[in-house]
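quick one, 550 residues, struct below
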Amino acid sequence: MNDASNRVVVVGSGASGLVAALAAKEAGMDPVVVESMSVVGGSSAMSGGGMWIPNNPLMRRAGILDSYERARLYMDTVIGDVGPASSPVRRETFLKQGPVMVEWLASLGFRFFYRPGYPDYYPELPGGCKEGRSIEPALFDLNRLAQPWRKRLNIPLPIPMHTVDAAQICVAFRAAPAFFRAAEVFGLRLIGGRLLGKRLVGLGGSLIAQLLSLLLARGVPVWTDTPMVELMHEQQRVTGVIIEKEGRRIELAARAVILTSGGFAHNEAMRQRYQPHPITTRWTVASPGDKGVAIEAAMALGAATALMDDAWWGAAFVDHNGKANFMLWERSLPYGIIVDQSGQRFVNESTSYVDFVHRQYERHREVPAIPAFFIGDARHRAYYPFGTIPPRFTPRAALESGFIIRANTITDLARACGIDPGRLEATVNRFNDFARAGKDLDFHRGDSAYDRFYSDPTVKPNPNLGPIERPPFFAVRVWPGDLGTKGGLLTDECARVLRENGRPIEGLYAAGNTSASVMGRTYPGPGSTLGPGMVFGMIAGRHAARLAER
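---
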């Protein structure tokens, strides 16, 4: 093992951690990545792989004009004043270093993808961008990784697609362009690629596979099944970590430690302590390794935290297999609404996922809304997938388990859900009038370009609205799920972990969901988790190298 004076230990193998390790290595350090799980990538590998990076070079090449000033106006408008996690200097650092990170990774061989069309989540607000500021990894052939590593990626299902493809696939049975896009993904790329000896993957799988490939090519050790137990420290300085490896506890001394192992989505005690109730780990779709160990270890040394009550929220349903699923297109496409337990709508169903759950918790304080209920008609089931359930087919297990509740009338459906039949009837009738007119007068669904990203272009006059009138009708319980927690260790613009007095803990850094988000309590655009996490991961790796020089 290399000299500890030049070593940087990166805890966690998500995108933030792999970028941090890559930055440290390129700056002359000897990083080692320790991962508690047997697979690499954490929640990043399971994600859409998008990185929200305003004014990035791919936008410029596509002719989309953006600037630091425009993006800063947008962030300031959307986020507001939420305290030091999203301080002015941290916002400035993120916006200025984001394009730098993209150029740097590209120079190392990382391949990006950008196609205009996935807008910011509030594109009509000052500084918003309807064309979108999110970039993704290009498709990657997993065969380029060494054989042992191909099976050690936290990818549930390697699919060769991009986010813009997903929006088309949802309506593949409705529009010819969408059908041909689906045929391209599953035919040309998936099957055709296999025939050519390729195993193409996109989204978060490509993100982690590309970063891991760059690290392995540079000889950076990545240790799986190696959880961190605690931080080593002396004289107010972090000096390394204690890890468990192959059944033994090992002291791994280091010049710096960078914590990037996620938040505390699967830590029941922390969620009950810090987050709004009702709350449980059963509704999250974060990686199982997201248990808050790094946050608790830093807190034991006096680290400050922020935004611990918040998360990267999103509506979720628990399917007939007991698995939590994140709801995106299901609630945004036509012929469906979401109601509270009184039978009333309370939110624009197509709104951003963080805003949806914020509103669900607000509503629950007034009227029971956890769970809420998705209400749809036969066309929603016939036209669109619901989670992994394809259109036109509803498994018997989904009905027998109670995951999907079905009835021939709205009245009978209401009774089966425990909702007042008269009130649900009135809500559906009012919504149906809006759908026919093409204008949601209550919640403005379909007015925003973001709403229309997941919509059905064949439905007129509003692609997000369709009357709920064709039996059989169905209902699904909607829970306040999340992609991971948003609060964590308070860090400065150099990604250094801060104490309660605002001074940094020497030798300790954090990025990604281990740190309190620069995005505050909002979600400005697709990739607002990965984008800042990777930027501050790069900053942490480079700053740790400068620390070693001093």
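The radius of gyration is 23 Å.
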